[in-house]
Amino acid sequence: MNYTLLIQAHLTELTLICTALIVLMVDRLIMVRCYPRLRDPVAAGLTVIGCGIAMCGTFQADEAIAAMTAAVAIISLGERFTQQVGEYFLLLLLAAAGLIFMVHSSDLLNAFLGLETASLTFYVLVALDRRRAEAVQAGFKYFLYGGVSAACLLYGLSLIYGLTGSLNFAHCTKAFATMPPSQMAYVAAIMLVVGFAFKLAAAPFHLWAPDVYRHAATPVAAFIASASKVGGIYLLARVAGAFQREAMLPALVVVTVLSLVIGNLAAISQTSLSRLLAFSAVAHAGYVLVGLCIAPSQPVPIAAMVYYAVTYAIATVGAFGVVLALRRDAGSDCMSGLDGLNQRSPALAILLAVFVLSLAGIPPLAGFFGKFYVFASALRGGSSMTIGVAAFAILMSAVSLYYYLQVLKRVFVQPLKDDNQPPLQVSRVTMILLTLLALAAILAGLFPQGLLQSLAPQL
Amino acid sequence: MNDALTLNGCLILSALLFGIGLVAVFGRRSAILVLIGIEFMLNAAVINFVAFWRFAHPSSDGMMFSIFAIAVAAAEAGVGLALVIALYRHRRSVRIDEIPPASE
User: Fold this and answer.
1) Cα–Cα distances in Å, from A409 out to A331, A335, A354, A361, A416?
2) Of A9, A229, A280, A400, which is the most exposed, with the fewest CB atoms less than 10 Å away?
3) Which residues of B touch A275 (CB under 8 A)?
4) How far apart are alpha carbons A123 and A278 in whole angstroms?
5) Which residues contact residue A65 at a Cβ distance below 8 angstroms, ignoring those fewer than 6 apart?
6) What angle do CA B33, B39, B40 make, to 5 degrees?
7) Are the beta carbons of A287 and A397 closer than 8 angstroms?
8) Best residue in B52, B55, B92 for a mutation probing chain A (most A CBs within 10 Å)
9) Can you name the residues that pair with A117 across neighbouring β-strands?
10) How many beta carbons lie within 10 A of that of residue B61, not counting itself?
11) DSSP string for A331-370
């Protein structure tokens, strides 16, 4: 065995894991004793440096995950939700390493191990603020749903192993190509879809999402909403490519349609911005799954789906940055807190508008091209059912405009309740980060081809 | 050679274990019993791996998969019990029907 090759293949994960250990050691051995007030900035700075090193190379799903981790580390600055600063950043980096390991793996079992590494750290991250009962309960609920879905996924993998004798992607693709769909393949397909639907918060396995998004610390919620989505969608697209899609299709269509309906309709009645983002995440899982509801003979539009996930992640981290500013200002992220935001902080209002419009899919922002590519590939691969699902998704994204524009109406049209409210204070670092994310959303929308090509996996 | 053990027998056993685990997860009120249910489901998959390795694909890596799966199950149990303890500190009980449903 050649260890040099092995290290080269997993350099990104190794960088992140080494950074995680360095962060923990620096925090515990030096910062706690000597400079307790600088713990946050030093740990976040080291994390960002580690993620920056990991991001070298062409921009693909793994670099996108590292970038999201860096963004989350920056918005964590000044959030005092835990005393365990070093451990928090360690967990963040380990989760990112797990997700990237999952993206790099050429084997379903390795992918599962990466997924579990990430999931187990997510459960801990959500419950990290142990003093708040809500956070612990949200973490436990997340764990219960996650545990069941991981078990389903593993059971599905064991059946795939039974059918093909291997869990290697290439081997499975070859073995399934000549095999007629059997009952066992259908059971395995349902198990896999259940497992991934949970990861992507697709209905009917989304019940953890509103609680986690609302009660976890804001940066943690932003991380779960962005990085884990990118990793999950990449892996699902690859698994769907390797597996028999005739068997997977019925379950996928059910999950897609349910996510579109439940996500969009439930988001309309939400009164807090974080819960609205949770249900919009359910709806977005539905949109991206449209890309998999294509005829089995067509290739999976993996680049379009990953482009969608990356642009969605950019807009979501940005929106959570605004949630964070609102929570610091008013203690909650009620929609009424958005009233007259334009007068209190024009810059933040414009940034929120960019993120929300990108989520809604308004051209020329990145979200529009994400939807466009996914729907176009679905329509191109068109059986009549595929076209029906895509048309339904387009209809539902018209419904989603209603609640996104409600947010913007509050920001720009609704007057301030109390004219004496002071301007909203946002730290300069957060503002710079949000501006960069908004620029990324605009640039990815103006030049979609470049990003799309670089995201196409080189397998 | 023990002829009583067949592939079908093992698959039925693992399907039963998976079903029992699922019923425990959705039917039981105590967080500990729900954790045990999840362990049942994970171990059903492990039995599948070993059975397929033994009866269908003896020259492949099935045994290795099962060892990794056991490690994952152990890690999951560790995190789960830590969360149960954190929950117990707040509520002085581990009954999950006392956790309030989604807020608001």
Assistant:
1) 22, 11, 14, 17, 12
2) A9
3) 104
4) 17
5) A96, A99, A100, A103, A227, A230, A231
6) 90
7) yes
8) B52
9) none
10) 19
11) SS-BGGGGTTHHHH-HHHHHHHHHHHHHHHT-TTSHHHHH
A110 lies in which domain range?
Answer: 3-455
ipTM beyond cut 0.90: yes
Tokens of A412: 């720009």
**Which residues 6+ apart lie within 8 Å of A101 measured at CB?**
A10, A13, A110, A113, A114, A117
Q: What are phi and psi of B101, to 5 degrees?
A: -70, 180
The tokens of A52 are what? Answer: 């920056």
When divided into structural domains, chain A yields a total of 1
Per-block mean pLDDT, blocks of 10 residues, chain A (459 long): 85 93 93 86 92 85 91 87 88 95 91 95 93 91 93 94 90 87 91 92 90 92 93 92 87 94 93 92 94 85 91 95 88 84 89 94 90 90 84 93 92 80 83 94 89 74
Class of domain B7-93: mainly alpha
Which one of B42, B68, B84 has the shortest CB-CB distance to A113? B68
Closest A-chain CA to B41: A151
Interchain CB contact of B52 with A (< 8 Å): yes
Residues of chain A in contact with residue B91, where contact means CB-CB under 8 angstroms, are 133
The domain locations on chain B are 7-93
DSSP A299-314: PP-HHHHHHHHHHHHH
